[in-house]
Amino acid sequence: MAESVYEKNAVRKPVYEVCSGIKNRQSPTMTFMSKKQTGAPYYITLGWVYGIPEPNPHVTEHVHDYDEILLFYGGDYKQPQVLGAEIEFYIGGQPITFNTTTSMYIPKGTPHGPVTWKKFDYPHVQMSFILGTGDPEKAYGKDITSGNKKPSKKTKDFDYEQYVIRSPMREAGPGQKNRQSPTMTYMSRTQIGAANTYIEWGWVWGIVEPNLPKMVHDNLDEIVLHIGGDPKNPEDLGADLEFDMGNDELIFNTSFGMWIPKGVMHGPLIWHKYRHPHIEMAIMLGAGTVAEGWDGSFFGPDGKRIKMGERPRR
Q1: What is the pLDDT of residue 311?
Q2: Does the pLDDT at position 307 exceed 80?
């Protein structure tokens, strides 16, 4: 069978190119979206943390020319809001301490770091999402503002806590079996007024029933990540998953990223085999709310579009 034209949109194996030489964590981390891989103008890297990283901190204060979203999520699907660690993170010189699954929105030009692990209980994931460039050199190449392990002093009369989400909204998800439903919304304009990216994700712990239906987003691009939950074998998805693009059937059994340009039909998503828990994450680019991202995107069995008020939410 000929290779699908949509293979160019899929990242079946990550690139290892960022955050080298650190003990007790994946180092380098796994890059699952970049210009080099799919042509997307976004850069996503993530990695498992297995203990207190050494050196600690290994991320010093720095600044980007692009907005960044950071997500620290716990590795236990039975208690997904528990991080499994306590971390101190500085934004604009203000300390932010958290021990729950947490996301942050960092506007371009905002100093952030250092990142210091205070406690460790069990493995968890650190994820970085740079908006506006898929080039790691542009994303990270000139971002260091201080090699010191101590942050600069806070100079603005501004509470950077408003860029932090410690607890998710639960508003998306149609009530499927063996899948976190509702899923956890960890970025939206409702939660952080400056954000214009909607991120919802949840754990899968069996064959999902019913399948996720076909959908298309007319005006917005989307990134979908399916990431395995085994920290010892992070490239193993933990399932055999069918993720159709256009009229083509794509099968995955490894952790993967998918770049979905606006107007491209995708789905259904069908789980054929299951081995261990894994993450499903949807990132809607340019949407501040779930309605902006998904209203009218789904198709029913009759092939007609369904408004969100006419069916349980995704």
Answers
A1: 47
A2: no
Where do you find CATH 2.60.120.10 in the chain? 5-165, 177-310
Alpha carbon distance 170, 185 (integer Å) = 6
Distance CA(138)–CA(111), nearest Å, equals 16
Q: Which of 201, 128, 146 is nearest to 169 (CA)?
A: 201
Peptide bond into 95 cis (omega under 30): no
Residues 6+ apart with CB under 8 A from 146: 60, 61, 62, 152
Query: DSSP 3-state helix, strand, coil percentages of the chain (rounded to 5)?
Result: 10, 45, 45
Q: Using one digit for the tens of pLDDT, what is the confidence trace for 207-222?
A: 999 998 899 999 999 9
Sign of the CA dihedral with 9 first, then 199, 173, and 49 last: positive
User: What is the assigned CATH class of domain 177-310?
Assistant: mainly beta
Residue positions counted in the chain: 314
**CATH topology (fold) of 5-165:** Jelly Rolls (2.60.120)
Q: What is the pLDDT of residue 312?
A: 41
H helix and E strand count, the chain:
3, 23
pTM of the prediction? 0.94
- In this predicted structure, what is the pLDDT of residue 144? 58
Residue pair 3/10 in contact by the 8 Å Cβ criterion: no
The tokens for 130 are 């740079």
**126: pLDDT strictly greater than 70:** yes
Torsion of CA 168, 68, 78, 58, to 10 degrees: -130
